[in-house]
# Entry
Amino acid sequence: MKRITILIAAFFISIAAQAQVDRTVMPKPGPAPEINLKTPTSFKLNNGLKVMVVENHKLPRVSIQLTIDNPPILEGNKAGVSSLTGSLLGNGSTNIPKDEFNEEIDFLGARLNFGSQGAYASSLSKYFPRMMELMADAAINPNFTQEEFEKEKNKLITGLKTEEKDVSAIANRVQLALAYGKDHPYGEITSEETVQNISLTDVEAFYRDYFVPANAYLIIIGDITIDQVKQLTEEYFTSWTKAVPPSFSYSQPINVPNTQINFVDLPNAVQSEITVQNIVNLKMKDSDYLAALVANQILGGGAEGRLFLNLREDKGYTYSSSSAIRNNKFVPTRFTAGASVRNMVTDSAIVELLKEIKRITVEPVSEKELKNTKAKYAGRFVLALENPQTVAQYALNIETEDLPKDFYKTYLERLDNISREEVQMAAQKFFNVDNARIVVAGKGSEILSNLEQIDLNGKKIPVLHYTKNAERTEAPNYESSVPENLTANEVISSYITAIGGKEKLEDVDTFLMTAAAEMQGMQLDLEIKKTVANQFMQDVKMMGNSVSKQVLDGDTGYMVNQGQRMELSGEELLKIKAESAPFVELQYLTNSDISLDGAEMVGDKSAFKVKVSDDKTIFYDVETGLKLQEVNIAEMQGQQIQSTFTYEDYREVNGILFPFKLTQTMGPQSFEFIVSEIKVNEGVSEEDFK
Amino acid sequence: MKKLLLRSSAILLCGITTFAQEVNYEEYDLDNGLHVILHQDRTTPIVTTSVMYHVGGKDRTEGRTGFAHLFEHLLFEGTKNIEKGKWFEIVSSNGGTNNANTTQDRTYYYEVFPSNNLKLGLWLESERMLHPIIDQSGIDTQKEVVKEEKRLSYDNSPYGQFLPVLGKNLFDVHPYKDPNIGYMKDLDAATLDDVLVYNQKYYVPNNAVLVVAGDIDLTETKKLVKDYFGPIPKGNTITRNYPKETPITTQKKATFNDPNIQIPAAMVAYRTPGFTERDAYVLDVISTYLSDGPSSKLYKKMVDDQKQALQVGAFNISQEDYGMYVVFGLPVGETTLEVLYTEMEEEIEKVRTTLISEKDYQKIQNKFENQFVNSNSSVEGIANSLARYYLLYGDTSLINKEIEVYRSITREEIKNVASKYLNTNQRLLLEYLPEENPAN
# Structure
């Protein structure tokens, strides 16, 4: 027997001597590697805090992660209190003032962050004892002051305000509220009103109730010893008072009996946010958990997913389309698939989304899709393991998700064993086109009539209407309140009369305006000069330095953006030219291409809507005739970007009314320009347009 | 009081625990001269296979610049056994990532894979070294790609030309005078023969180091390395004999106009020693002191307090034969470049004439230590460092010892090095200006 082995070995050697490897063939991967995960050493303090230690002496550094694994918390009419508590933690302690605390961490080259349900610190291992002390001190003896509370509360409210018109933020909030219900921790809505209800006492109470050790894990990874951790944890964390958080009951979310569209009308939307969602019960410990991830990856995971290939690459509806499946051990959760699409293709995009979700449930995925997806998924999984935070998360998941101890050790092998059938079964179980909510936030006047025509299984999908806060509402009424026979040119004419009359306007040869706005504490200066001879100059300066400048002189022009100069040509040149006249409306008077597109509310005023071009719409006050708002649409990186100018505070200069407050809104950003000077027929020279 | 005590005890601990960070490795040569470094780290089942070739922008003849960078592109085109255009697909459908980069001194190619694809990584790199397909059509394609890259990263990019401009003004005879990416006319003039000769000269095992790092079995890996790389023929010995520069002894002035900017930059630059010299390390420390972080000297004074500069920086561009030490500032509003030069020189002069404070010294030490630790936080990062220390510094063990060099630098030394290299008569004043003078 032994001899045979030697013979075989010799046989192989002689072969190897001739051709050691066959390099004409690409090497096949070896068997899926076993994950060499460190098993944490664990112990528990008397107050309930569980400590996990992963010794890793490769580098002299340590990370400390505190995670409190509480069930979801219902905040009710004080929604926002958890977020405020998180912001107020980590600002020093009752022993060390805030500035001193932060300065010390800087000096140590370390970092320390808090959230409402945990904290994270990292440093060199030699500073680990001090970092443990600082984290424990800040966690157990928080420095809650009225001053910081007011500051954080204002920040939170400012944040909520910037979301007021943000289509994707509204869409997200409505999706959650509809999926879970507004009286569920995941569905409740934080509003300015609920934040105003919060006092410092509420933050203190929230901290006392929920920042407690019963469900807390302290995970320490790095160049430390278990003994050192034991000693330090006992020294610094023993004083954390033992307590269990209060528990609630709340309703269980369920799927709708029949697929429906839940529509939120947002008149300012240039894109529709579409999400197809259904409720799933998926926990990490479920046997089909990995198959569900793979199915989702094939359907809508990134640039190789079917949704991306169909809705972006093939149809060009959107910049990106993807899907996501979530897991949660406490409550049912969501599967979502969606995209942000141009208004005009909203209904078509829904049809394609439903088609792709359906297809993966009725047809098995291809061998190649499965193979490449597994390889990518496995690679990503394995490469991510290098990050200590990933390792910590896995140790924590095993503990909190009740997973088998070898869950991650066998992860790649299990991934590799998944069959096409298992992927299809997971898709059938978790992706649901027949009991789905299709949440659409978009501009009803342009998309609603098409939304009402979408078929599913031979029936029209019903459309239900909701407000921005997920309350049921009536279908919007788009019937125009425009008097019969009124034309766009007449609207323009009454605007011209309102600001001073055609004759006065025609006397204007040059126009100069300077205005200023503030952005994050910095001043933005705006200067505009125009003449009737197709000359235009607009310069935006930040702290005295020009950041954006556009110049037009007759038929030539250029722009300079952050130091980069570009000559204007083609469409850009025409666009600027169209804006260059001191009063563009004088040209609209006789322009037969403009059209009156109904009436809409602008703020609390009703306004006539005049469509000047595909990219430009202007709103004129029905009552006073004044220009209220201008909406421009531009295409940037495949997304349609809308910018809005609002005109207010009209004042007279040389017998003509000019707006002295201009607000420009673009996405979540908004600049309020206050005009300091307007000059007519003075202060402009030829040099300005060179 | 309690806090003070604790802080000093934490500093005391420092001497005891610093040796914890030891990167283990094994190194040897194959018969064909390929240097091999293996680093085993089984924490994560990933493996990096990388090859660093000792060839960079400076390895060129007059009229044939930019070749090393062109090769960074050419050597992804395909090999005798890898179909043209398939390289990236092979890597991603096997769960990996890859990339390459070129400096004036070396070129680095690498892949990261789950460790069951070690063989694949070795195959890819050995294919590249043994028999890449280099033909006219590949050269034509990649020349255009490189031109696009030049437009994107240099010509169209605000301040994108400052490195080539500094090189041109700080060097008269050494190849560092020419841009790493090369002159486009040189690339256009390059023939297939030129390119093939360059490949045969530099992309040979005896001019390279292979690093295999991560979750590997050492015995098996050695065998595979021998199998895949052993048959690659040895190349001729390379001698580098680049002209030496004569020291700068009187201040130089230069201006450059960049059409992509609106705010000028005041730059002060000095020619400094190559990166293996101890003085180069000291210059790194001086950069950190001057401009790293909001409490650094230049930043605190010029940006924070006096609001003269939008941005300031000091950095040591370290290279094999010579370094370039650069201090720059971008003016706010009406501030003139003259004012910036004066303010910058005032701080540099302080470093030349007075000792930095004990507290600043300690803070710098902490920063370097953090930087050092984090530079070794990924297997790919370690592979890169191992390759660099062997190939360019001639001492692989620096991966564990370099921090000792920084630690041994004294406050006196900082002062001495500053007064050795950073004098006003040794400097280049480069006014980096917008194309046209601003209207005001």
Summary: The first strand of chain B starts at residue 26 and ends at 29. Confidence is low (pLDDT under 50) at residues 1-20 of chain B. Chain B has two domains: 20-229, 252-434.
